[in-house]
Write the structure tokens for this entry.
Amino acid sequence: MPNPADLDPIALEISWNGLKSIADECFITIMRSAFSTNIKERHDHSTAIADARGRLIVQAEKALPIHLASMSGLLSCLLEQYGDTIAPGDVFIGNDPHVAGGTHLPDINLAMPVFADDALIGFVANIVHHADVGGAAVGSMSGGLDEIYKEGLRIPIVRLYNNGVLQDDILRLLLLNMRLTEERKGDLNAQIAAARLGTNRVEDIIQKTGAGQLCVVFEQIITSTHRRLRHAITALPDGCYTFSDKMDDDGAGTEDILINLMIEKRGDHICFDFEGTDGQVPGNFNLTLNATQSAVCFALKALLDPEVPNNQGIFDAIEIKAPLGSFLNCVAPASVAMRANTCQRVVDVVIGALAETLPEQAVAAANGANTSAVFAGYDPRNGQRYIYLETLGGGMGARATKDGKDGVQVNITNTSNLPVEAIELEYPLRVEEYALVMDSGGAGRHRGGMGIRRSIRPVGHVCEFNGVGERFRHKPWGLFGGAPGAHGRFFLQDNAGGQQPLPSKATGITLNPDHLAVMETPGAGGYGPPADRSKTSLKEDLDSGKFSVAFVEKNYKM
């Protein structure tokens, strides 16, 4: 079909915002239709629109950066596998990191094609983190599993709907291998509803403007994004920048896992080379290359141009090298369930490498984790099984002009806080403390953010607790003389106040009503030497209750 001339900037901006509003509406549809608290309260999902080549055009405003490359990976595999057989009314799903473009099994990807007459115009895609997808451990976020077969049901890219007809046998096969089948079915239906809504909305645009103009809009959005990021890259001084950091452990016996990075920048070209990074590990902290890509793209965007759109134009502006079979480019049957923790560390490493040349934009290390907690058991009120999943925030790194934020999700995850009221309403659990961890932010001219403490007790029953944390040994580093933030920890507390420490990868812990499961997430690093703070600032630190007298005396020159 003939292509009209490129749109002028105003018309392009209107078209761009129209597409973004569709992605946002799809996001809200999932949030309001889902069954699980992880989606309807915490918003652990993303939505996007892609073109006929599978290139992402627009992602919802509240979508998660970590999901960007995962949706792109699904579409790439989908087109390669199904090609010309894709038809109106089809709905494709998949989750496997090794054959379906995913990053870990709990994230089930879904895509629905958009047609104009007989021509494929694009896709409406979404991704939802399901609280459980089967596997050896209860909940989808258990640590220490040493191969992907134990992590849950692996879904290659399959047609869930064929020409608008549900393939019921496929759906029954999926649900049979998952705990809480009604909740999983409800969340899947929310994904399908959102995809249909988005498809209808894009078809409305085609009716008004024509398919040819929409395809031109797609191309211009990608080109504009790519040009904008390349311009920002050009402004960086040419040179090589290096940094390294270590993960605590993989939960399966491997400790101090090295992530090594060299950034080479020449003109408008930038390459992130992870040569020297450790090989893939038995535990489930490995990354596929597209997960590494999501983390790198986020970090560079945050440093150079935070307002640049999330789409294919960012991918095209960046080169990434990671040895095949390494920790950041693993191969099957590597396990990957806890990949978000590693993505957080990749972001820290990229920021660390560029901090000297971008001191105003760089932040100290954040809590560096995606601290997860899973409580599972049988609800004594109705005898039904339940699984409560949450990932907890922590400290944000201090900045050149401001303290770090306290108790927030950082970097590639932006899920919401799960309110205490929602937990206690839906689960037989009581939250006895939800607070910030005093003294957990690193001292500095600007101090790091504080971590979170959440203490939970089962009510009237015995349940299982699984917890996974990072930065429990290697503290979040400070920048330019700032002090590191405090590490995180898990422990059980009895009614007398006695504490039983738990490992950072705590699996299958029996929890009864006489004990609290206490989760403390890491703080974050400070920025600049603490001695630079004035006496007034020190007094404000004490008055705020964020730091104890002992902490201030230790970290500041009085």
Notes: The chain has a mean pLDDT of 92. The radius of gyration is 23 Å. Residues 117 and 554 are 71 Å apart (CA to CA). The chain has twelve helices and 20 strands.
